[in-house]
Task: inverse folding
């Protein structure tokens, strides 16, 4: 119980827990975001510029389409990795 | 302080997940802890984009009024898919480790043969 | 792993077309209602996973080889990148929305403010929804199928 590994684990966990609880009580109130100018412009212009009624889909595929390209690459890499682990080499 | 309840829920999720990663020995319990930390971070991203008394940012038959921010919802979508991909790779590696060593104890694997 | 009893096989093959239609509806109406490519793809994958659990992984692997399925996933990824490059050819910007305002395929612009709109709007967004939906369906199903089939092989320590 009193080995060095256990003491180090308890100290690390206590430091992270104190930091998280302290910052959760000091953050801004729930419901009043700090800076929302970019989102106000997106909500006002999304129907004329992209022609879609859904603002979230137009952000995912039109205003920030490059992030969706990176996410498609991650899906492809995960499938390739899983197939690679379970491969049987023919003798 | 009583109105910050979503942020306190985020901290509770992250702390439970961190406890499972640091203090447990079974490999499957560590994987479950990592998934809990991921869920806590996704919840934090969504609660950052809420305005008081707003509706969803969709124009089809909407009841009018102010709308909540759409950009954090789009970033959370990407984060959920990344979590699924990492979970699939972790679980296939755990199956491979069990076939090679015969045990799932994290303190008995990875030792150099003497 | 082996399949389940006769009652489970019959009921799940009756329910599966309804799940398929609901998932394709969520993918196709991604620019009007909440949803899109990723959400609808997850719905269809859970329907396919139900078929896999009911019929057993040995029977499913005998019917569908995973080499043919990976062709569909690459097709979805290539269609997505092709649509992004076509925007480069039509407006000198990567990921340009070149079908908005034109009367070729998906060109009308809805009225400003809250109201209903038909499916003919949206520009290049519905085509991207289909490409990403196909990629997600095939990719997640291949992961589940390979892990279920590999855990049914009995072999000693390597």
Result:
């Amino acid at each position: 119980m009193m080995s060095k590994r256990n003491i180090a684990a308890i100290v690390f966990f206590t430091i992270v827990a104190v930091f998280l609880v302290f910052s959760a009580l000091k953050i801004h109130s729930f419901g009043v975001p700090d800076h929302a100018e970019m989102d106000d412009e997106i909500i006002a212009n999304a129907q004329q510029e992209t022609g879609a009624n859904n603002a979230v889909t137009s952000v995912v595929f039109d205003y920030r389409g490059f992030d969706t390209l990176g996410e498609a690459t991650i899906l492809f890499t995960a499938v390739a990795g899983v197939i690679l682990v379970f491969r049987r080499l023919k003798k | 302080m009583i109105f910050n309840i979503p942020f306190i829920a985020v901290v509770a999720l992250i702390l439970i997940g961190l406890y499972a990663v640091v203090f447990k020995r079974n490999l499957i319990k560590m994987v479950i802890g990592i998934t809990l930390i991921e869920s806590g971070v996704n919840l934090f991203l969504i609660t950052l984009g809420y305005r008081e008394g707003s509706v969803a940012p969709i124009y089809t038959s909407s009841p009018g009024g102010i709308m909540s921010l759409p950009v954090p919802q789009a970033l959370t979508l990407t984060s959920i898919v990344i979590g699924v991909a990492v979970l699939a790779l972790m679980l296939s590696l755990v199956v491979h480790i069990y076939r090679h060593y015969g045990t799932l104890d994290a303190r008995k694997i990875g030792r150099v043969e003497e | 792993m082996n399949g389940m009893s006769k009652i489970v096989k019959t009921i799940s093959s009756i329910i599966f077309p309804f799940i398929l239609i609901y998932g394709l509806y969520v993918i196709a109406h991604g620019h009007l209602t909440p949803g899109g490519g990723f959400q609808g793809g997850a719905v269809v994958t859970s329907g396919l996973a139900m078929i896999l659990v009911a019929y057993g992984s040995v029977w499913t692997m005998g019917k569908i080889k995973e080499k043919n399925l990976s062709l569909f996933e690459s097709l979805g990824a290539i269609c997505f990148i092709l649509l992004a490059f076509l925007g480069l050819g039509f407006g000198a910007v990567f990921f340009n929305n070149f079908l908005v305002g034109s009367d070729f395929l998906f060109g009308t612009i809805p009225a400003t403010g809250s109201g209903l709109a038909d499916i003919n709007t949206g520009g290049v967004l519905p085509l991207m929804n289909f490409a990403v939906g196909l990629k997600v369906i095939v990719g997640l199903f291949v992961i589940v199928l390979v892990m279920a089939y590999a855990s049914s092989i009995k072999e000693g320590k390597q």
The longest helix of chain C spans residues 66-91. Chain C touches chain A at residues 30-34, 36, 66, 70, 73, 77, 80-81, 84, 94-95, 97, 100-101, 106-110, 112, 117, 121-125, 128-129, 132, 135-136, 139, 142-143, 146-147, 150 (CB under 8 Å). Chain C has one domain: 6-150.
